[in-house]
Amino acid sequence: MKRILYWFRNDLRLHDNEAFSRAVRQADEVLPVFIFNPALFAPLPRLGFRKTEIFRANFLIESVADLRRNLRNRGAHLIIRVGDPAKILAELAGEIKAEAIYASKEVTSEETGMESRLSKLLKPLNIDLELFWQSTLYHVRDLPFDISRLPDVFSQFRNQVERRAKIRATVEDPMRVKLVPEIDPGDMPSLASFGFSAEQIEALNRPDSRRAVAFKGGETVALQRLERYLWEKDLIKTYKETRNGLLGEDYSSKFSAWLAHGCLSPRTIYEEVMRYEDERVKNDRLALQSTYWLIFELIWRDFFRFVALRFGDRIFKPSGIKHDLQKRWRHDQNLFIRWTEGQTGIPFIDANMRELAATGFMSNRGRQNVGSFLVKDLGIDWTWGAAWFESMLVDYDPCSNWGNWNYTAGVGNDPREDRYFNIYTQATRYDEGGEYVRHWLPELAKVPAPKVHIVSNLSPPEQRQYGIALGDTYPMPLVNPNKWLKR
Fold first, then answer.
1. Are 39 and 25 in contact (CB under 8 A)?
2. For the residues 130-150, what does the mean pLDDT come to?
3. Which of 53, 368, 371, 384 is 20 to 30 A from 484, comparing alpha carbons?
4. What tens digit of pLDDT does each residue of 297-311 get?
5. In whole angstroms, what is the distance from residue 304 CA to residue 402 CA?
6. HSE-up (13 A, CA, CB side) for residue 176
7. 372 near 422, Cβ under 8 Å?
8. pLDDT of residue 343
């Protein structure tokens, strides 16, 4: 009786899951397992906030619960445990006399460190650990260069893979799974079991009505979102024009949270986009340009994962990929907290940061601006900002998050040496009428569009007219925003 233990990680799906499909084909019985690691919910030593806050924690629990339901529909079960993954997996594999553990291959140090620990524990048991690359659009083995020769610039990477590499076809998901019998499936943990308070849970259950999208974890919802975005609403036709939006559910695909947890395969998105182009817009040049931009974003996602594979822990260090030891960063806790709470006195920054705090999400345009402000205008250590995003974002992915922050801080492989965002220019370009700012900063609701992005310039009579009091109902700015008017 050949048995394989399958360790679900950031691949919480059955569609296009090559590793799990192989386990089902190659074994007489399979034991699917997911392990919640309490270390992921612990406070960060210096900064104090949790490594994973409630938004992503809840999304993860929902995703695992959905996976368990989908496995039950195929005659199996998802075994759930809480604790040290390496230790628990080795014990379970030994208990069922597994021939091997199969799992998805990860690239960043916490995950690869866990792989190494597990491998060492399995050796005395004579159990193999087989890891499968399945998180990217382009498979790492299909790249037209060795990973040590990964191009430093994204455009060079994109040109080479588009010309010289092929995207592999998706893998069919198994219809039936024969489960290893008589193993206690375990109970789903709750948010309370990871130390979230009753007040936090109650607030989560009363979501902010201003949020862009109601993120719900799981493969089922992910595939529904894909179907709705492409086929029911035809939103991909205008993706290029709307992707820099700030308000609403449909200005961008919002696939990122499901991609980050592996609830949605990038290759499945690609195949659906290709089918959409063929069936709906094959003769529409403008629409075809728009559909390509969604694939373009998936290639960016690939690039950051390959960058993490090439540079390892350098993406997490203040000196970054460039190993720039000359840059110096401020470690001012008060300034940093003002930034996290959306109390900087710069409306466009505050609106984005308050959206993140209230919902666990922020637009791509917002992320670039708040990151630039923290690093370039306040001079705060960029790794603090990256850690805050890691904690708060429902769509946190270590490679994309830390890779983007490397760019923002000027320590990544960016062809532009000193990338800087003029916050006022950005605000007036992407929120010209001030709708986004007023949406998230109700205290500025009466300020007209021409004045809402630099409210610190309002005279005392104007403040009274618009119902605000600078330094009281809205903070004075941490930097002088008039510097942006001179650029």
1. no
2. 97
3. 384
4. 999 999 999 999 999
5. 9
6. 3
7. no
8. 98
Q: What is the per-residue pLDDT across 228-263, written as a single tens digit (0 to 9) for each?
A: 999 999 999 999 999 999 999 999 999 999 999 999
Please give the Cα distance from 411 to 403 (Å, whole number).
10
Cβ–Cβ under 8 Å, residues 40 and 51: yes
- Rounded to an integer, what distance in angstroms lies between the CA atom of residue 152 and that of residue 77? 44
Distance, CA of 20 to CA of 32 (rounded, Å): 9
Q: Which residues contact 206 (CB under 8 A, 6 or more apart)?
A: none
Residues across the chain = 487
Which pairs count as long-range contacts for 481-486, CB under 8 Å and 24+ apart, including other chains?
481/346, 481/423, 481/424, 481/454, 481/456, 481/457, 482/454, 482/457, 484/422, 484/423, 484/424, 484/425, 485/424, 485/454
Please give the pLDDT value at position 487. Answer: 63
Predicted confidence at residue 46, as pLDDT, reads 87
pLDDT single digits (tens) 17-58? 999 999 999 999 999 999 999 999 999 988 999 999 999 999
Closest CA to 28 of 99, 93, 123: 99
Asked if 225 and 258 count as a contact pair (C-beta separation under 8 A), the reply is yes
The pLDDT assigned to 417 comes to 63
Cβ–Cβ under 8 Å, residues 215 and 59: yes
Percent of the chain scoring above 70 in pLDDT? 99
The arithmetic mean of pLDDT across residues 324-345, rounded, is 95
Residue 416: the pLDDT is 67
Q: 398-409 and 285-311 helices cross at what angle (nearest 10)?
A: 90
Question: What's the CA gap between 188 and 65, in Å, rounded?
Answer: 7
Q: Which two tokens stand for residue 341?
A: 């709470």
Of the listed ranges 58-62, 112-116, 219-223, 235-239, the one predicted with least confidence: 235-239
pLDDT of residue 191: 97
Structural contact between residues 4 and 26, judged by C-beta atoms closer than 8 angstroms: yes
Nearest residue to 455 via CA among 465, 468, 436: 468
> Is residue 396 within 8 Å of 457, Cβ to Cβ?
no
User: Of all residues in the chain, what percent are helix, strand and coil, respectively (each to 5)?
Assistant: 55, 5, 40
Residue 197, token pair as written in the block: 């308070």
How many angstroms from the chain centroid is the CA of residue 271? 22
Instruction: Tell me the two tokens of residue 146.
Output: 């060795």
**Alpha-carbon gap, residue 392 to 387, rounded angstroms:** 9
8 A C-beta contact, residue 341 and residue 357: yes
DSSP 9: S
**Count of CB atoms within 10 A of residue 146's CB?**
8
Q: Model-level pTM? A: 0.96
Distance of CA 401 to the CA centre of its chain: 7
